[in-house]
Amino acid sequence: MKKLLVMMALALVPMLSFGQSIYSRSGSYEGKVDSNGKIYDRSGSYKGEVRSNGYIYDRSGSYRGKISSGSYYDRSGSYCGKITSDGKVYDRGGSYKGEVRSDGSVYDRGGSYCGKAQGVPRATAAALLFFDLLMP
Fold first, then answer.
1. H helices of the chain, where?
2. How far apart are the first and last CA of the chain?
3. In contact, 47 and 9? CB cutoff 8 Å
């Protein structure tokens, strides 16, 4: 579920005004995104953050990528994919990867439930689950 935490990191900046927990498909606590965009795993270890300018940094402070207008970019500036206004997530080639529903439920491309990030912005959830921008 590290992947779930990582994908939560990329967020639309205005949506990072609260802290919420992230749960696995079995309901186990996996971590949280706090009100400042900092991401913590289940043991409370700092994993990285999404800054107010949309830039993502890992735990060592290294730049990992950014989100801009629903599009995700890696550290080299290459386009990774996007999230639509209805929560559907697509990779760089336009293939459907999954979705983040309005209640925070996350589903993979096959429709299987992956976990829940209730109260976490959709773009943040998609970033952590589908694009791995905070994974070393």
1. 2-8, 122-126
2. 15
3. yes
